[in-house]
Design a protein that fits this description.
It is a single chain. The protein is an alpha/beta fold. It has ten helices and 16 strands. The strands form three sheets. Strands 1, 2, 3, 4, 5, 6, 7, 8 and 9 form a nine-stranded mixed β-sheet that branches. Strand 10 and strand 11 form a beta hairpin. The termini are far apart.
Length: 506
């Protein structure tokens, strides 16, 4: 068995990472084969910084496990209920070394075109091995599998073998099995390259240094193309579900099954948070100052906390508390705006040779490792360029805030002018109302005066009526007095005599 990094057990950085990020740290398989292209690719990306390459290598393996675990728990309930697992195009075990902590190695099969990769895994990880072939028609397997993963395989297949390999893997499923495979979606291609009408774009380029790039290049596909392929290989019986950027927020993950035990709507998939340390520097008082950003892009996601560990012990906790428009712009969501954070570690809590782990945890319990390295390594790497970068970022942030303040001031000025205009209109309306009120009061006073005059006239009329009644009573009394007098009685008798004699007149 050929491997490198034989001193990994004594490497304090890797030891701290494994202790923090694996289920059973004491049983974790550390060794990496010298031919492992994924490790060599990581090493090249971090300019031969061995510790960083290792951390990146293991971190990606852990993230892929977290992804697969969500799908497995949706379909099977747990890893314990998966009778058999095939890791197709497995490489040298970046993912498998995490999988064997969830499923017994004897229930795991790995398959790859590199015979040395299969040999490394069977001997070191204790799993079953199947050497793959260059042509799908030559890949003949005499057993079925309950769960199959083909990670970063179809993202390299040309059109002539894409559907054939998909057919092969689909045919290896048990009736209740699931197939997971990842692809490059069309959105990842260069914008100046047009997508072919058939929905698949292939270019003869890849990170592999040994495979024929005409057979193993870089492939981009549309969702329509993938669904049509699945429908074709499944004879119309298969169910398929797409998880956008399900693999490390880059490649799309497709899930295929013949028996939909649970509806895809119950597959609540969540991405890992993301973050970065922009500044790591010692202050004049020898405190360690850290500054950066953390963000969560899940629909209902949020950063629960950011932890800073020194030699495996938590020494600081914090949360994002200030706006980072650059981060919100990168993720294209306002949900990532308040992502800036910073903290101090007192000088008596941290030294140059101590191992620092900085990680962000979201509300779904998923973790993102911002850094795992010695304090000295982090400070040396970040201090010079990061301070400059941070200053530029802060300047841009201040400029953005200033522009926002200017826009807000102009808006407030406009609102003030509108308010003043409305106030003037209100004052005019008030003056008009006051004038109308004065007029109404004058009219009321006139009406009240008229009422008083009418009341006086009524009283005068009532007095006159009383006087008339009194005069009438007096007249009645005089008439009664006259009628009862002897003269009036003699006068009445005289007229009666005249009437009896036929004499006219009264």
């Amino acid at each position: 068995m050929s491997d490198i990094n034989l001193d990994l057990v004594e490497n304090p950085v890797i030891k701290a990472f494994i202790q923090d990020q694996t289920k059973f740290p004491e049983n974790f398989k550390l060794n990496i084969c010298e031919d492992d292209e994924m490790y060599l690719f990581s090493l090249n990306n971090v300019k031969d910084d061995r510790d960083r390459a290792l951390v990146r290598y293991y971190s990606l393996g852990r993230r892929i496990l977290d992804t697969v675990k969500q799908v497995v728990e949706w379909h099977f309930g747990s890893f314990e209920k998966v009778p058999s697992f095939l890791d197709f195009a497995c490489g040298y075990g970046r993912f498998t070394r995490f999988l064997i902590q969830e499923i017994p190695p004897e229930q795991i099969w790995v398959s790859d075109i590199y015979a040395n990769a299969v040999k490394f895994q069977t001997e070191y990880l204790g799993v079953n091995g199947i050497v793959s072939t260059g042509k799908p028609e030559n890949y003949l397997i005499d057993r079925k599998f309950d769960c199959i993963l083909a990670n970063s395989f179809f993202s390299h297949m040309p059109e002539r073998t894409f559907t054939s390999w998909l057919q092969n893997l689909y045919d290896l499923l048990t009736p209740n099995g699931i197939l997971m495979f990842s692809v490059h979606d069309e959105c990842l291609r260069s914008p100046h390259i047009e997508m072919p009408a058939n929905g698949i774009l292939f270019s003869a380029q890849s990170e592999s240094q040994s495979l024929d790039k005409e057979e193993y290049g870089t492939t981009y596909v549309t969702e329509k193309f993938v669904r049509e392929c699945v429908d074709r290989v499944g004879g119309g019986k298969a169910f398929v579900h797409r998880i956008k950027k399900g693999i490390c927020r880059f490649q799309d993950l497709y899930v295929v099954t013949n028996e939909l035990v649970r509806d895809f709507s119950e597959l609540k998939f969540n991405h890992h948070p993301e973050g970065y340390i922009d500044v790591a520097a010692f202050t004049n008082k020898e405190n360690l100052y850290l500054e950066g950003w953390v963000a969560d892009v899940n629909l209902d996601g949020r950063i629960e906390e950011l932890k800073v560990l020194v030699n495996g012990e938590v020494v600081q906790r914090c949360e994002p508390f200030y706006d980072r428009p650059d981060v919100a712009g990168y993720f294209e969501t306002d949900g990532a705006l308040q992502s800036g954070w910073s903290c101090y570690l007192p000088k008596n809590t941290v030294g140059l040779q101590d191992v620092l782990i900085v990680k962000a945890i979201n509300n779904y319990g998923l973790e993102w490792i911002l850094e795992t390295c010695t304090v000295k390594s982090l400070v040396n790497q970040r201090q010079s360029q990061s301070l400059l970068g941070s200053t530029q970022t802060k300047l841009q942030l201040l400029e953005t805030q200033l522009e926002s303040a200017r826009i807000e001031w102009e808006q407030n000025q406009s609102k003030l002018m509108i308010t003043e205009t409305k106030l003037e209109e209100s004052q005019t309306s008030l003056q008009e109302a006051q004038t109308q009120l004065v007029s109404a009061q004058t009219q009321l006073e006139q009406t009240q005066n008229q009422l008083v005059a009418v009341q006086m006239q009524l009283e005068k009329t009532e007095n006159q009526l009383i006087n008339l009644k009194q005069e009438l009573e007096q007249a009645k009394c005089r008439v009664l007095a006259m009628e009862s007098s002897k003269f009036w009685k003699l006068r009445s008798a005289w007229f009666q005599v005249r009437r009896s004699m036929g004499l006219a007149g009264e």
